[in-house]
Amino acid sequence: MQKHFKMVEIRPGHYRSVPLTDPRPEVILPNKPGIPFTVTTPPWAAYEAAVHNQDATPEQQRTATDQFIAEREKWTSSSTKYRKWEEQRKGEWAKHKPAWRKKMAEKGVV
Hints:
This protein is of the alpha+beta class. The chain is about 50% helix and about 15% strand. The protein has helices spanning about 45-50, 60-80, 80-95, 100-105, and strands at about 5-10, 15-20, 35-40. Strands 1-2-3 form a 3-stranded mixed sheet, with no helix packed on it. The chain starts with a strand and ends with a helix.
């Protein structure tokens, strides 16, 4: 089986999976209790960047939005990893909402 990715250290204790063409040296993950912190980049991140591109035309942004939604739904429905990632991201957003906004949401005024 041929490898297509390798693990690199992006800063002490933080690792990321990158293609073999990346110039950084491959590291062996430490053998210690617990799971090392790895950065997860969802497959739909490229479409998300295109949605927020200020130089794009409205048609390009609509197309990018449709592709973003389709890709995110495809991956969250088929991959537990990305489904949990999306739930955690939404949880973080909800946690950092202002108190007045949380009260409005509880009342049903959105």
